[in-house]
Amino acid sequence: MKSIMRMTSAVAVVALLAAGCGGKEEAASPGKEAAQHEPEDVNAIAIRPELAQRITVGQPAMVDLADKLQVPSQVEVDEERLVRIGSYVTGRIIKLYVMLGDSVEAGAPLARITSPELTQAQLAYLRASSRSVLADKAAERAHHLLAADVIAIAEVERRESELEVARAELGAAADHLRLLGVDKEVLKELSEEGHIIPSVDVRATKSGIIIDRSVIIGQVVQPADQLFQIADLSSVWVVGDVPEQIARNVQVGQHVEINVPALGDISFDGVIIFVADTVNPMTRTVMVRTMVENPERRLKPEMLAAMRITDNPHKSLVVPETAVVREANRDYVFLAKGNGQFLRVPVELGSEVADMRPVLEGLTAEQNIVLDGAFHVENERKLAELE
Fold first, then answer.
1. Cα 70–74–79 angle (5° rounding)?
2. Which residues contact 304 (CB under 8 A, 6 or more apart)?
């Protein structure tokens, strides 16, 4: 009886071991199938039918594209609208009429100066005026005496010659006073009344803005000294340095776009008026000067600017900006595979030009891509990736 029970227990143990082994084999089978299953491509996406109406599929376009070359530049005063004003005589400044930044008209007084040289010039003018009057009267008497047959014709000619010399000296003295800043009204008063003026005004020779004042009251100045700078800022220069490799595309009369960071997103139209004939050997650049209208005086000298020069157009394969998505500093577009299937592929693109991106690498003209609505497809792909 005991032997029968031992045999039954052994059979039961063998059966249990056999069942356990069978369970392990069945449990291992799903694992093998999972290991053999390939992971899905995270760049592939099948969009919902309602999303298909929000995207546009097409091919990249081949267009004539003109690059905009950005050149660092600076606003400067138009030197053709700039005047530098100094003293006409050596003397001392006794009065100032203007401050830095004042707007003045041509002929307006800027400063008043007193000078011994001015006094001496007025005395010379008065002496020349007196000699001219005496010579005129002497010549007139000579004509009367000649008519009375009292003097010879030679004496009349001598006195007429003296009159011409006296008039020439008077004219030279008057010109000297005008060069010293004496105007016609003061000169007339000096001639008629003989009053010597102790000082004279330094006047503006051009209308504009006082952009520099290098003098104070009491300062002794000379004709070589610069006292004021007056500029008409209704038009300014923007000067930039163009790399020599692209200087051949820059021509006088060409329109350029001027941007000034200090003024925000405002752009100005400029016209190239000068292209240097030499290359700066230190920077390998060519100086380019443009003229920009500035009626509201928003452009101020010494402002930093960016000059955008349009390059010659050339054929380029482009995609619209709406076709591009960006991730991890890389650009991507979506290839259309048909039946609502799309694949995100990396591409190398150039800088934006008129809402278009030139294709440098990664795409051909025959491939169908999402032209508009790539943002929606990218969102759909990210949602699928999270699920």
1. 130
2. 72, 73, 74, 75, 260, 261, 262
- Expressed as residue numbers, the domain containing 135 is 116-179
The reply to whether 344 and 375 lie within a common domain is yes
Q: What is the pLDDT of residues 184-206, one digit of tens each?
A: 777 887 877 777 888 888 999 99
Q: Which of 107, 125, 81, 94 is nearest to 181 (CA)?
A: 107
Q: Are residues 73 and 124 in the same domain?
A: no
Considering the domain architecture, whether residues 304 and 319 belong to the same structural domain is answered as no
Place of tokens 């969009």: 47
Residues paired with 199 in a beta bridge: 114
Judged on CB neighbours under 10 Å (0-12, 13-18, 19+), 136 is: middle
Q: Which residue has the tokens 């609208």?
A: 81
Q: Total domain count for the chain?
A: 3
For residue 286, the domain's CATH number is 2.40.30.170
Overall pTM > 0.70:
no
Residue at token pair 């009367």: 144
Residues 287 and 327 in one domain: no
81: tokens are 């609208």
Tens digit of each residue's pLDDT (9 = 90 or more) over 148-171: 888 888 888 888 898 899 889 988
